[in-house]
Amino acid sequence: MRSEADIRAALHAFVQRHANDFPLTDDTPLFTLRVLRSVHLPELILLLERLRAGPIDVEQLQPGDFASIDVIVRRFGAVS
Amino acid sequence: MSALAAALSQVSETTARLSRLSQRAFQNPYTSVEWPSTLEPERDWFSTPEYVSLHGTPMWTGLDEAARRRLAFHEAAGFYSLNIHGEKALMQGLAARLYRSDLTDRTGYLHHFLDEENKHSIYFGGFCTRYARVYRSRQPLFGTERERDVADFLFFATTLIFEEIVDRYNRVQARDRRLHPLARFINDNHHREEARHLVFGRRVVSAMWTAGAPHWTGSTIDEIRDDLARFLTATWREYYHPDVYADAGLDDPWELAESAWAAPAQRAHRRKVSAGCLEFLTSVGVLVQEPVDAF
Helix H segments across A1-80? Predict the structure, then answer.
């Protein structure tokens, strides 16, 4: 399990890789602005599982769970 | 007329022929296989060793023969599981298009497609629930909203990518005499059925691209290409399953999945297995460059 800062930094790197030159902040609405699309989620979920060293139940996910980096960290930053 | 309706009209001779072949090959998945009461994962091969996701990595070199076979057994269940999840999404997409108002007269082959995918899942589920488990997927159940023609195209194009990769595994493993007869049967049966789906997939994707692309903006086409590249990567990621590694008794499964994904031998394997599908998508203009993230 990594620290919140590590998770946040890894998320920034992941999103920025797909965001081209979009100015990204922790509260950027990732899906509303189509910085990310649903097709990015399997890789994002795998990254989050690796960072927290615990599985994520994909069947329970809602689109809002990935609204921004802040939301993702709050929702997945710790193994529940 | 929608791009899908135009495409299905254009390939109507092909779908009529495939429908006749499907009727001839109609099978009962409840009687066509005898399930052994038990299997011996450390004695028999259930996946082709060269197609195991750790093959060519330092971890594979360090495993003894029994551990390799145990891993190959759980990878077989992992492979059947990703088929189950892929076919679930496929069946949902096919069912949503059956008798859609613009497709009322063109759904004949979609019935066969849907029926056959359901039967494949009975075989895959039969193995997983009897001898192992159904491994989870990371494909979420919700998607991005798209205009209908784009959604139709992405549905059939992603289906094609998924099935072309799976079929390569099926073909190799069906012929591999080292494998347990049950594993060879499941792979062979799926390959024979998928041969028809792949013919349909290539024809309909090509026809839909021809019908749809001239009407799409440059940014829409860029997004379609990016979606297909991401889908290819996400599909391949499912072959490196931390839960499979954990069940095979391997430590630190997430890090192992990441190192296997990055291993040169595995990158070359993915490129080789994907080549036929990517050559087709490039030849019809859907893709203009190799999706590098997958390799």
Answer: 4-18, 41-52, 69-76
Provide the token pair at B227.
Answer: 């979606």
- B243: chain A residues, CB-CB within 8 Å: 55
> Contact B142/A63, CB-based, under 8 Å?
yes
- Residues from chain A contacting residue B86 (CB–CB below 8 Å): none
Unique residue bearing structure tokens 């749809």: B212
DSSP state of B252: S
CATH of the domain at A41: 1.10.1200.10
Q: B234 contacts in A (CB within 8 Å)?
A: 39, 42-43
State how far the alpha carbon of B186 is from the alpha carbons of A13, B24, B36, B158, in Å.
Answer: 41, 19, 13, 23
- Sequence spans of domains, chain B: 3-26+42-294
Rounded to the nearest angstrom, the minimum Cα separation between A38 and chain B is: 5
Q: How far apart are the first and last CA of chain A?
A: 12
- What does the angle CA B72 – CA B75 – CA B81 come to, to the nearest 5 degrees? 150
pLDDT of B254-273, one tens digit each? Answer: 999 999 999 999 999 999 99
Q: Would you say B33 and B127 are in contact if contact means Cβ atoms under 8 Å apart?
A: no
Q: By the 8 A CB rule, do A66 and A36 touch?
A: yes
Tokens at residue B13, please? Answer: 């001779």
Evaluate whether B110 touches B94 at the Cβ level (below 8 Å): yes
Q: How many residues does chain A have?
A: 80
CATH for B3-26+42-294 (3.40.1360.10, 1.10.620.20, 3.65.10.10, 2.40.160.20): 1.10.620.20
Question: What's the full length of chain B, in residues?
Answer: 295
**Predicted TM-score (pTM) of this structure:** 0.94
Q: How many CA atoms lie within 13 A of B61 on its CB side?
A: 6
- pLDDT, tens digit, for every residue of B37-90? 999 999 999 999 999 999 999 999 999 999 999 999 999 999 999 999 999 999
Question: Is residue B227 within 8 Å of A39, Cβ to Cβ?
Answer: yes
What range defines the domain where residue A40 resides? 4-76
Counting the structural domains of chain A, the total is 1
Tokens coding B270? 């993915």
Count residue pairs from A and B with Cβ separation < 8 A.
62
Rounded CA separation A20/B275 (Å): 27
